[in-house]
Amino acid sequence: MAELVHVGKHCTVTTCKQLDFLPIVCNGCSQIFCKDHYSLDAHNCSQENFSKDGCTITSTDPTSYECTHPDCTNRELIPILCEHCNKHFCLSHRHQQEHSCVMLKEKEVPMAKTAELVKQITASHQAKGNVKKGIGKKSAKTAAKVALMKMKMHAVGDKGIPQVERIYFSVVLPRACCSEKNKTIFFSSNWSIGRCVDKVAEVMRLKNDNNIANAKKLRLFHPDTGESLAMDAKLASLLSGDVPLYSGGFVILEYVDNDCVVLNNVQDYL
Predict the structure, then answer these.
(1) For position 113, what pLDDT does the model report?
(2) What are the C-alpha distances in Å from 177 to residues 153, 173, 207, 221?
């Protein structure tokens, strides 16, 4: 405790002499007082620092600095200025958030707009009415990219297909014979649609009578137009054009007659 003897100053009032670690210097007489006697009336100030015309005579004596926070009465021996609003504060209120600084800018959440966009796209993609209402070409492509990231985690297919050739689809399965509604499968962009159909039939163990004349045929259909995809068309050629397929999007597989070129009520499959 002996080390603290020279810390702080005693109140000048004779009947007080309280040792104050944050002494207050009177602007009127330049004397040092405690918190109980710093007002002019409390120590019968001589006001010698004030001239007759009311101007204050500048004092070179050390002073304390009052916190400008409305609910605080603390003082500091050294000025603590907020570099944004240029006001004095105590140690407890020196940060912008703690004194509700008028210059404080709300911190933006990183990637907030991107996260909101992904949320909207995902919700739109899952909604059954998205095909019926029709979404723009750009929106459909973005939605497919979001779905593609999820598909890659659980898709099945030929492991020998190079990564750069893999095209992912959520294949909507025939309603009459499959307990699953759809299956995520990847194909090679160099395959024909006929080979893609054979691959789905193999993976899902579906009856495939495409080589029998009078039997029902397995065909792939476009999820937007309902048009039958030509069996000899190369998959890569269908990824561009006015109404392209998207890796990460849907295709519909169904048993139909050999002469069927358009699948009716395509919205009901999605």
Answers:
(1) 67
(2) 26, 8, 9, 17
What is the DSSP code (8-state) at residue 10?
A: E
Q: Are 138 and 124 in contact (CB under 8 A)?
A: no
d(CA 89, CA 83): 11
Q: Tokens 């995809």 appear where?
A: 229
Distances (CA, A) of 94 to 84, 103, 222, 253: 11, 13, 64, 67
Q: Give tens-digit pLDDT for 208-260.
A: 888 888 888 999 999 988 899 999 999 999 988 888 888 888 999 999 998 88
Contacts (Cβ under 8 Å, ≥6 apart) of 18: 10, 11, 34, 36
Listed in order, strand segments (DSSP E) in the chain are 9-10, 19-20, 24-25, 32-33, 65-66, 75-76, 156-157, 166-172, 182-188, 217-221, 249-256
CA of 83: how far to CAs of 54, 91, 97, 220, in Å?
Answer: 32, 14, 13, 67
* Structure tokens, 175: 């309603």
Instruction: Confirm if 25 and 31 have CB atoms less than 8 A apart.
Output: yes
| Segments in 79-111 forming alpha helices (H) | none
Query: Read out DSSP for 134-179?
Result: ---HHHHHHHHHHHHHHHHHH-EE-TTS-GGGEEEEEEEPPTTT-S
pLDDT in tens, 80-106: 888 888 888 888 888 888 888 888 876
The residues pairing with 20 across neighbouring beta strands, listed in sequence order, are 9
259: tokens are: 């002469």
Residue 238 near residue 246 (C-beta atoms within 8 A)? no
Beta strand 166-172 pairing with 156-157: unpaired
